[in-house]
Amino acid sequence: MPALAGPTGQDCTVGFDALLVLSFGGPEGPEDVRPFLENVTRGRGVPARRLDEVAQHYLHFGGVSPINRLNRELIAQVEAELAGRGMALPVYFGNRNWHPLVEDTVAAMAADGVGRALAFATSGYGGYSACRQYHEDIARARASVGPNAPHLVKLPHFFDHPLFVKINADAVVAALGSIGEPAWVVFTAHSVPVAADEVAGPPAGGGHLYSRQVRRAAELVAAAAGVTGYDVVWQSRSGPPRVPWLEPDVVDHIDKLADAGERAVVVSPIGFVADHLEVVWDLDTEARRRAQELGMRFVRAATAGSDPRFAGLVVDLIKGAMDGAPRTWGVMDGAPPTGGVVDGAPCVPGCCEARATAGARE
User: Fold this and answer.
1) Structural domain boundaries of the chain?
2) E-strand stretches of 236-356
3) Angle, nearest 10°, between helix axes 309-323 and 162-179?
4) Are the beta carbons of 347 and 332 closer than 8 angstroms?
5) Looking at the domain covering 19-158+307-342, what would its CATH class be?
6) Exposure pattern of 232-252 as b/e (b: 16+ CB <10 Å)?
7) Could you give the C-alpha distances from 26 to 188, 214, 322, in angstroms and in order?
8) One fold for both 19-158+307-342 and 162-306?
9) How far apart are CA 290 and CA 255, in angstroms?
10) For residue 64, what are the β-bridge partners?
11) How confident is the model at residue 75 (pLDDT cuts 50, 70, 90)?
């Protein structure tokens, strides 16, 4: 495809001819729920009763997860942002666990003549579930297509990107303003097994990459929002009780805040980029209900993906990859500060290897 000149005259599309938005996937009707959950948990030994329990969360919302709709909205915004910057990149959409499946999308990309594409995963963090598993998705999809599969370069983590920090900080400030009284701020992200977090990152990096990145993001957002009283907690654990997961759980922590005399709480889902089921159920439903039972005011801050500026962040990542410019953010992962990870290889050998991560999560 012909390359276009960017704002400063440089060639903005050399080396890449498409963008793949890569996500988790979610059901789009009641008949999809159980097959979707079986895809998520295949090979993990999750008991049927747990699938039945999680299925009820989806069925509470008509069997529809918001995630596919939100990703399609993001894609439309990214396409508009690309066009506004004179960058002619078609955008494709593929999921790990539900249609459009990434294998089918990569096959369509090959049929369209795409040779080399960037991949944006809808997670800003490292670790197995948040990053390495997306590398595996890329490798599996390319293998399913064969030698004509496009080369795919995953864009870097963005947990500490200045625009990501700014968007989340503005959301916290807005939530604090709406609550009308002093409130404690709680940043939350998806819990993972402690064993998985311990090996997250390159082998020589000391582990705990995922939890360190979440805490760093919370620290930056709190500082930008002018917040001094806050905690980092976890949510949505789904493994057996005998397996330790990152704690404290957000609902348990709300109990502790109430015991300490706090009368209002703002919850910022810093670990999520959009209002996935685990935001609208675990926070907007369960955590909110518990706060109300305790007589606490509860406001949930908006996720970054609901802000129109988030599409600009995605395009900034694309532009940075095209230019090969050094970056000062997203480098806690031990990967080189320039370039990307190609065709599903790990950032470095042994990085973020799989551990017990049984459960159903977006």
Assistant:
1) 19-158+307-342, 162-306
2) 264-268, 297-300, 341-342
3) 170
4) no
5) alpha beta
6) bbbbbbbbeeebebbebbbbe
7) 21, 24, 31
8) yes
9) 8
10) 28
11) very high
Q: What torsion, rounded to 10 degrees, do the Cα atoms 234, 238, 243, 247 define?
A: 10
Place of tokens 């988790």: 24
Nearest to 189 by CA among 81, 71, 62, 278: 278
CA 2 – CA 112 distance, rounded (Å): 15
pLDDT digits (tens, 9 = 90+) for 15-46: 899 999 999 999 999 999 999 999 998 887 78
Report the C-alpha gap between 119 and 359 in whole angstroms: 25
The predicted-structure confidence for 76-116, as pLDDT tens digits, reads as follows 999 999 999 999 999 999 999 999 999 999 999 999 999 99
Instruction: Output the pTM of the full model.
Output: 0.92
Q: Give one DSSP letter per residue of 38-62, joined into a string.
A: HHHHTTTT--HHHHHHHHHHHHTTT
Q: Please state the separation of Cα 354 from the chain's center in Å.
A: 18
Reference 40, options 20, 25, 52; nearest CA is 25
- Domain topology for 162-306: Rossmann fold (3.40.50)
CB 228 within 8 A of CB 184: no
Please list the alpha-helical segments (H only) found in the chain: 30-41, 48-59, 67-84, 102-111, 133-145, 162-179, 194-198, 209-225, 250-259, 277-280, 288-293, 309-323
CA distances from 341 to 120, 219, 246 (A): 12, 27, 28
Contact 344, 137 (CB under 8 A): yes
- Burial classification of residue 295, based on how many CB atoms lie within 10 Å of its CB (0-12 exposed, 13-18 middle, 19 or more buried): exposed
* 301, 183 contact by CB (below 8 A): no
Tokens 């609902």 label which residue?
A: 251
Q: What per-residue confidence (pLDDT) applies to 172?
A: 98
Return contacts of 102-106, CB within 8 angstroms, 24+ apart.
102/20, 102/22, 102/137, 102/138, 102/140, 102/141, 103/140, 103/141, 103/144, 103/145, 105/20, 105/141, 106/20, 106/141, 106/142, 106/144, 106/145, 106/149, 106/150, 106/152
Alpha-carbon separation of residue 269 from 154, 272, 302 (angstroms): 24, 6, 8
Q: Is 147 helix (H, G, I), strand (E, B) or coil?
A: coil
